[in-house]
Recover the amino acids of this structure.
């Protein structure tokens, strides 16, 4: 009995040691800093953009990138980061939300892992994007939307205009989405503005060509009136 008791104590001590190291390992994992990925970045939706904004916006955006990389997954998931102010994206929790899922095209990038089976793709898509969050760039400078998976924050949308959650005004009316043309500080960086300038250039070129021709005709008339007969 004594021998068995000693073995039991040794086993218990070993279990406690293993458990201690296990907790330490878990602690190390939870303290691991996040990585950032742009693999699933969505440029197709014009509601979300990052072009044509102020120099200060880009300074704060890169500061936010640094904050993300210095954060842990727990800080984001528990929504307690003091600067990023994380908020869980509840796709069905706000009637003013303008999207109800991250882009379906993410599934296409999962085909090498899951094959073409739609059920497998959907399951993997839902699992990957389950921890969806919006992070603040800075007060008054909009949000970054993405999800945490495998200790990586995958950025999907840049949202300087708060277009995912436009909210309501003081009278309870839904706020309108602000497009890049309304937000862009550097107008020539806005695609619509570039197209407008191109069209304007074509119009001005045609008008200039017409004026040159009219001027040529007027000069010919002037010559006939001013050159003395020989």
């Amino acid at each position: 009995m004594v021998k068995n008791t000693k073995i039991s104590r040794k086993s218990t001590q070993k279990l406690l040691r293993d458990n201690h190291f296990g907790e330490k390992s878990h602690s190390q994992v939870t303290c691991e800093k996040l990585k950032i990925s742009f693999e699933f970045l969505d440029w197709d939706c014009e509601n979300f953009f990052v072009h044509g904004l102020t120099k200060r916006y880009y300074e704060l955006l890169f500061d936010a990138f640094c904050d993300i990389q210095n954060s842990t997954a727990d800080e984001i998931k528990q929504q307690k980061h003091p600067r990023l102010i994380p908020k869980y994206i509840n796709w069905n929790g706000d009637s003013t939300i303008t999207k109800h899922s991250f882009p379906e095209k993410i599934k296409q990038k999962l085909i090498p892992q899951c094959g073409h089976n739609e059920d497998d793709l959907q399951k993997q898509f839902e699992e990957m994007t389950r921890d969806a969050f919006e992070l603040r760039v800075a007060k008054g400078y909009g949000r970054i939307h993405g999800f945490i998976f495998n200790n990586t924050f995958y950025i999907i949308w840049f949202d300087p205009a708060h277009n995912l959650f436009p909210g309501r005004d003081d009278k309870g009316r839904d706020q309108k989405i602000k497009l890049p043309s309304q937000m862009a500080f550097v107008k020539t960086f806005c695609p619509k503005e570039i197209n407008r300038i191109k069209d304007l250039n074509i119009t001005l070129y045609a008008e200039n060509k017409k004026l040159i021709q009219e001027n040529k005709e007027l000069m010919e008339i002037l010559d006939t009136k001013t050159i003395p007969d020989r």
Q: What stands out?
A: Residues 190-230 form one domain.
